[in-house]
Design goal:
It is a single chain. 2% of the residues lie in helices and 58% in strands. It has 187 residues and is mainly beta. It has a single domain, classed as lipopolysaccharide transport protein A fold. Strands 1, 2, 3, 4, 5, 6, 7, 8, 9, 10 and 11 form an eleven-stranded antiparallel β-sheet that branches. It is elongated and about 55 Å long. This is Lipopolysaccharide export system protein LptA. It holds the Pfam family LptD_N.
Length: 187
């Protein structure tokens, strides 16, 4: 099934990570990678997900839905934007992606990925969310994380969404961090 221009597709599936994970690294760094806890975007089964794109192609035999062209996913305060997004889902008897009762297995996004939740933002070239393992990966020549004036730069962000553990890799270079002293909590 193929649907063209502009597509507004609303899922009430429990996938807030549908869009993707978590952003917000606290301070701390090493030369090759920085690890920390991430807060921010949380999994939420009680809020609808709104997806817009220029085109939607549903391939039920392959258990996937492909969104292309100006993809925008919103759930609560979490927003994901990308050039394309492929949603892979698990099928069970009678469950379909269009009815909203299919279980999402994983999501892959590409072509200038942008994630935001409140003051937290991340950009990269491509990304994936595995809802089975609860792992988010954002990759690119330059993966940029920011919260307010605090900026973290690397090439790959790995987030274990269920624990909030995060690691930013440098991929042969060095992780770069710019911390704003005004962002520290005052006692």
């Amino acid at each position: 099934m193929s649907v063209r221009s502009p597509v507004f597709f609303k899922l009430a599936v429990g996938v807030t990570a549908a869009a993707i994970g978590a952003l917000a690294i606290a301070s701390g760094a090493s030369a090759q990678a920085t690890s920390s806890r991430m807060q921010g975007m949380q999994l939420s089964n009680d809020k609808p997900i709104q997806i817009e794109s220029d085109k939607l192609e549903i391939k039920d035999p392959e258990s996937k839905a492909i969104f292309t062209g100006n993809v925008k996913v919103v759930q609560g305060t979490t927003t994901l934007q990308a050039g394309s997004m492929t949603v892979f889902y698990k099928t069970s008897e009678g469950a379909t992606i269009t009815s909203g009762d299919a279980d999402i297995d994983r999501i892959e996004v590409s072509d200038r990925v942008f994630l935001s939740s409140g003051t937290q933002k991340a950009t990269g070239d491509s990304g994936s969310v595995n809802l089975t393992t609860q792992k988010l990966v954002l990759k690119g020549d330059r993966v940029v994380l920011s919260e307010g004036n605090n900026v973290f730069v690397g090439c790959q962000l790995n987030v274990q969404m269920n624990t909030g553990e995060a690691q930013l890799e440098a991929c042969g270079g060095r992780v770069q961090i710019q911390l704003d002293p005004q962002s520290r909590k005052q006692n």
